[in-house]
Write a structure and sequence with these properties.
By secondary structure, the chain is α+β, with helices and mostly antiparallel strands. Helices cover 16% and strands 39% of the residues. The protein contains three helices and five strands; from the N terminus they run E-E-E-E-E-H-H-H. It has helices spanning 111-121, 131-137, 156-164; strands at 3-14, 19-44, 49-63, 68-73, 78-82. The protein has a five-stranded antiparallel sheet with strand order 1-2-3-4-5, with no helix packed on it. The chain is elongated. The model has no long low-confidence stretch (mean pLDDT 76).
Length: 165
């Protein structure tokens, strides 16, 4: 199966704002593959001859950074698919309204919003536990040591060795 690929690279730099963007993706893949249902096979037992021919088609796959994929056979039209969005990093829990804005430019939360939030929470947490109760439930802390190494207490000389590296 023969294949040709076309890659795209985009780079942009804004020295004034100290920003840079760079992206690379496989944009177009054209491959030759056997065509289904298009083969010919003949056999002549008297002459001991065989003839086999397989039809071929060119499959085209086009990808884009906007998560759109187009696939199909060259000359027959392409089918477009919208791929699901997938973040590489975990979704942030809190994002300020204006990430790049200075503190003076940010909008302050109104008192009404704060009061509404406090009223919704009821002013207290039902499942609250003291730190002492939480630490009681944890297993005891065991210092990690290398297997087979003799156990020694950390004296002053040991701590000085650890600081030196």
């Amino acid at each position: 199966m023969a294949a040709s690929e076309l890659s795209c690279q985009v780079s942009e730099e804004n020295c004034e704002r100290r920003e840079a963007f760079w992206a690379e993706w496989k944009d177009l893949t054209l491959s030759t593959r056997p065509e289904e249902g298009c083969s010919l096979h003949e056999e002549d037992a008297q002459r001991h001859e065989t003839y086999h021919r397989q039809g071929q088609c060119q499959a085209l796959v086009q990808r884009s950074p906007w998560l759109v994929m187009r696939m199909g056979i060259l000359g027959r039209g392409l089918q477009e698919y919208q791929l699901p969005y997938q973040r590489v990093l975990p979704l942030p829990i809190f994002t300020p309204t204006k990430v790049g804005a200075a503190k003076e430019e940010r909008e302050e939360t109104s008192i009404q919003e704060l009061l509404a939030l406090e009223a919704a929470l009821g002013g207290r947490c039902e499942e609250r536990q003291d730190v002492a109760e939480i630490t009681k439930q944890l297993p005891p802390v065991v210092p990690v040591s290398k297997p087979g190494a003799p156990r020694r207490s950390l004296s002053r000389s040991m701590s000085q060795e650890a600081q030196r590296g």
